[in-house]
Amino acid sequence: MCVAVRDSCAPLLLCHGLSWPDSLDCDRFPADEDMCLASLSKEYKHIHKELPKPICQTCPAVEEFFTQKRVLDVFCANNFAMASGTALIYDDEMTSCKLLWDDPECDIEVPERLLSSYEQLKHYHLVERCIHVPVREGTEEEIMLVHSSEYLEVVKSTQTMNEEELRRVSENYDAVYFHPNTYRCAKLAVGATLQLVDSVISGKVHNGMALVRILIVDWDVHHGQGIQYVFEEDPSVLYYSWHRYEHQQFWPLLRESDYDAVGQGKGKGFNLNVPWNKVGMGNSDYLAAFFHVLLPVAFEFVPELILVSSGYDSGIGDPEGQMNATPECFAHLTHFLMQLANGRVCAVLEGGYHLKSLSESVCMTVKTLLRDPLPQISGEMAPCLSAVESIQNVRAAHKPYWKCLMYEEATPLHNLSTKSQQMMEAELIQTSTHPTAKQAVGTTNSDEAIKTDRFLESHMKKILFPVPPVKTAAAIVSKADAHLLPISVQVEMEMNAQELKTLVSAFDAELVKEEKALLSLQNVLAVLDKILKKKVCNGIAESSVASVSTTFALKHCFDFGLQRVLCIVVGDMDLELDLDDGKILLMNICQKQQTEKTNSKYHISLNWKEDAGRNNFFCAVLGFILPVAYSYQPDLMIIVIGPNRSLGVNAISLLTCLLQGLAESRILVVIQDTEIKLVQSVAKALSGVSTPDFGAYAPASQENVFEIKQLKDQLQQEWKMLRCSVKDWISGS
Ligand SMILES: [Zn+2]
Predict the structure, then answer these.
(1) In this protein, which residues make up the domain named FZ (predicted)?
(2) What global pTM score does this model have?
(3) Distance, CA 446 to ligand 1 centroid (Å)?
């Protein structure tokens, strides 16, 4: 019992800048939760007369935590799935390595990369919101887990070398340089990474207990061939990398960076390579690769920890990657990863050579880890042909290994659209004897860098927005249920009743007579109003007349000036809406077959059969709902939960969590009073203090997969993020 208390209290203490006291040895503790808590409480009163304020805004004061049983119950139930803070590890000493001579291969690797990222984190006041974990040196033993002792000795020997000697050693390696501080910095980098992993898993896992499944997401623009080699036979590590490949013409020029390197032996299926065969990949290409490759596989894999090889040379303006993803794209990628492994995500900085692009992208990642709402993603939401080709190939290559790809019909493509063009260009470079050609490229690069600087300057101003002071508001009629809500939720009850009566009578005079219906409408509008005025981020409202309330809510949205509202109805409900102008995209998820209705761009019915006890909704959310929603780019989302729903609590939590990347996380959930038992789970998903349990993974049935396939065929021309095979692309273009 005491171990459980330690595990649940440690994250809270961490958030207050406190650690579990050494004097409280768990083994000697009484096996009684109350006594254990009492001892801990006493210990802390003794040590700290004034307890420091929490770093996150949602956790209660430590004292309050120990004295209020109700708070404890609610807090434990809702928040202890993960540690409540975000750790940041940075040390000035890491910037002490630099290139001492001229080498065009290495001159982008500068200490300013770290400095500018850290400066930008300070600029956005993100540093003070993180928990600082001191850096330590990695031991030789730790380094030799992946490196040979010979290599270790070489690097070690560079500490005392002069410039000439350093230069000579460096020449033995590909795109590597040494500095007398390299060894020290490398040891710090290893130590820092291990410290980070330790602090992220310490809330949940005891020392010495091995994790069973780890997902490594390598969004750096270079292939992590080293990681691939280390884990390619290991089914406990799923390695995902996208990288500039260009038909093996880009560094590291390896055949095994292609999509068909799926892993070896027992590790087959656990190596996911997404090769980019052209430059210029952007937000929609990256998101499509997440929706159609990484996320379905990752949810099936069920990782316990996620490590991100967090390189930003895949971002806009980077001279290495030459890709187009804007900084907020990394917020969205991070957001999706946080829905896995109970939110235990460790991001470790890798590449990124355009300083402004790098530092803004780093900040976007950290903001998301701190659970700030996400900026809307910019750009046209349609993956390019070459990206779709790569996605199709990875899906086809991995079909034998993953249930989520079991019914995939597409086969690997051999004649890729980029192949002939790329060959032509290669020839052109080879035959080009013009000496000024290279010079011209250099000049363009620096012009490009300045152009990106200017673009990002105005772009960030456009997409950043003030975070609403309260995350989640709730208006629940059944007062008895209010105590079930996570404590960050504000319960709303006030609104001008007379004003509402007038409003309602114009719409439906009968409703005014119904006290309960009026109260419901009042609830829904009160919460919605707070969302629209950006006083809260999202909210939840109980209603006895959910469909009428939603119709009112939508009208209120357009009166307020919104352009696009995504409305997802779960269950049997008829909404009287005008769906022609595209201001509403209505998606109805229900069980009954609506044979007479055909799907149209703005009115989609998804017939879904739930798998009792498990969650089979992953493929629908990832393969269909998210791509449609991202293509639509709503200003606000309304999720209505009604009777006869074909989705269970796990599927609804999943939907609510994943959709929060859109519309600056502005979501209103309207719950019909008959379904009110869902309120706690939905509030937990909205409040985002932790990642809810989405239930055991169940593969979708053939019937369900077929339903999605049909919808995709009908709608991919309208909603282009649905495309994941070239057949889709050709028929849809
Ligand atoms: Zn890189």
Answers:
(1) 1-39
(2) 0.86
(3) 19
